[in-house]
Amino acid sequence: MAEAAAAATSGKVVIRNIGLLLSGDIDRPILDADTIVCEKGRIVAVGKEADCNTEQPDLLIDARRTCAAPGLIDSHVHPVFGDWTPRQNQLGWIDSTLNGGVTTMISAGEVHLPGRPKDIVGLKALAITAQRAFDNFRPAGMKVLAGAPVIEKGMVESDFAELAAAGVKLLGEVGLGSVKAGYEAREMVAWARKHGIQSTIHTGGPSIPGSGLIDKDVVLEADADVIGHINGGHTSLPEAHVCELCEKSSRAIEIVHNGNEKVAIAAAQMALQLKCPHRVILGTDGPAGSGVQPLGMLRMIALLSSLGNIPAELVFCFATGNTARLRNLDCGLIEPGRAADFVFLDRAQHTAGRTLLESVQLGDLPGVGMVMIDGVVRCGRSRNTPPAMEVPVVVQ
Ligand SMILES: [Zn+2]
Predict the structure, then answer these.
(1) 251 CA to middle of ligand 1, Å?
(2) What's the pTM value of the predicted model, to 2 decimals?
(3) 3-70+333-394 domain in CATH 2.30.40.10?
(4) CA of 364 to the centre of ligand 1 (A)
(5) Domain ranges in the chain?
(6) Residue list, CB under 5 A from ion ligand 1
(7) 209: CA distance to ligand 1 center in Å?
(8) Per CATH, which fold does 72-294 belong to?
(9) Which tens digits make up the pLDDT trace of 357-388?
């Protein structure tokens, strides 16, 4: 299992001969460009090869006309420590997910930790420890944004100030702890927001024995920044209530793999109908009772594009740029200044689709040919996806 220091970045990286460049930007999902230049782990230029300074690279990659997209961002995971999950007692799940094209994962709470503390001092200590641990250690190079406390009754504003001062930037899913009433959640979410901590609320029925129902009225009253797994995790609210949430709230609409797939499609289509596709973000909600899905993000993209009849290039934005913008991340978009986090894709061998985008719209998963984080190649041809027709090569 590859370990990389958080600060590991590259020198000058030139990626040429890109066949399709997906930007991650929902307003302009496909760029008319074939070259990306990066310095010190950041994108410095995107354009036609003749217009970019491609001289003297430390790393030159020939994309061989494959597709370059921003590394996928899983908006909803439940990590614990390192590359281990107690939920399915599995090692290497993060490394496996990197092979599914994901470069950033966002914790919705380290809730699976055996013996997870629920007292206020303990939950704060766990959040700070998880934030530090994943900041110091990136399994397989994956950026895991963790340290997401599950709020409990009795917390006061100074607890949120203290967490923020210690570097905590996220709340775990509101509703997984003892705070389940709308008015109580609303007060704590507002304290979190005031101190720069972003919040997510659990939506729908209980996930596992011990968690509870959060209905649409509680979601609306709590007003968390992200309507977490709006399609349930697994059990969904009635479809009409999910559509009502899309309409009445202006917050992020998070759709997950470990949820109700029919309602996933309904929520995405509702967002398009309401002309707010920029609010849709995707996650897996793994590890879960259903297991760990290293290709969960790609499966969500194929599901929404094929059965939801949404152009594949837009759905890729749900999994990249939308999440980056709504969560203030420096990755997720292919534009100068952003982190050099990419996934290289091609249509899978023997798909009926003639192009990558057509294959996804037909419901097939794409093949991952390479994943790069901060300008460093983290894997070549994926060990998990169906084989891509063509893969990028390192020229020098
Ligand atoms: Zn949940």
Answers:
(1) 17
(2) 0.97
(3) yes
(4) 28
(5) 3-70+333-394, 72-294
(6) 173, 202, 207, 233
(7) 12
(8) TIM Barrel (3.20.20)
(9) 999 999 999 999 999 999 999 999 999 999 99
